[in-house]
Write a structure and sequence with these properties.
By secondary structure, this protein is of the alpha/beta class. A seven-stranded mixed sheet has the order 5-4-3-6-7-8-9. A two-stranded antiparallel ribbon has the order 1-2. A hairpin with a 4-residue loop joins strand 7 and strand 8.
């Protein structure tokens, strides 16, 4: 697909990304670190941006959307505490990179995207990399994926003004959700756990995501 020395360059860049941006900031889950080392992030963005693929920042993927900063991908993934048997719901497929990371760590990933062009491109990329355990759907992600519920874990990769009730309803018991909640300029990363019918909420760091558009998020 590209010269061997180019492949080696990307492998080295991924290792540096993991060491300095991810493990260096406190991510300790060995399975998450290995997934971040393995998944070729550059394949999920335009070739013109490949030299920036492993930088410490988000990148544009078109249609006003972004691929998240590697550290944030790793942090959100680690908070789900995946062991390998889980069914995970992702809201906001985007370019498909987060879905690929999840696919390395869970039994099945169900990902919902509202922008057709992004969904189509993500599907092609995921197929080209051999991810057969990722299932995609074009829809308003704030409604979740009721037909496949419940989910052991839910990850929302766009910012919502509040936690969408359909997602809480589709979270298994026990189950874990990670979601950025706040206004359109800044949010708090929330970890929500469901256990014995009760919900518990934990605030993590401040973040800034694009808006979650939908009936239970921001209106377009």
């Amino acid at each position: 697909m590209f010269p061997r020395n180019r492949r080696d360059d990307f492998k080295i860049a991924r290792e540096r990304m993991v060491q300095h941006q991810i493990a260096g900031r406190g991510i300790r889950d060995a399975r998450v670190l290995e997934a971040m080392r393995k998944v070729p992030r550059h394949f999920f963005i335009d070739e013109a941006l490949w030299d920036q693929a492993y930088g410490d920042h988000p990148l544009p993927i078109g249609h006003g959307q972004t691929i998240s900063q590697p550290y944030i991908v790793a942090l959100m993934t680690q908070e789900l505490n995946l062991k390998g048997h889980e069914r995970v719901l992702e809201i906001g497929t985007g370019c498909g990179y987060q879905a690929a990371i999840l696919a390395e760590l869970a039994k099945a990933v169900f990902s919902v995207e509202r922008i057709p062009a992004l969904l189509s491109k993500a599907r092609k990329t995921l197929d080209s990399l051999g991810y057969t355990n990722v299932f995609l759907k074009l829809d308003d992600g704030t409604w979740g994926w009721k037909e496949e519920a419940p989910f052991d874990a839910i990850i929302v990769t766009a910012a919502s003004p509040s936690v969408p009730q359909p997602l809480l309803d589709q979270l298994a018991d026990p189950g874990t959700m990670i979601i950025p909640v706040g206004d359109e300029f800044s949010q708090s990363l929330l970890k929500i756990t469901k256990a014995d019918g009760e919900l518990h909420q934990q605030h993590h760091c401040g973040v800034r995501f694009v808006k979650l558009i939908g009936d239970h998020g921001w209106r377009d």
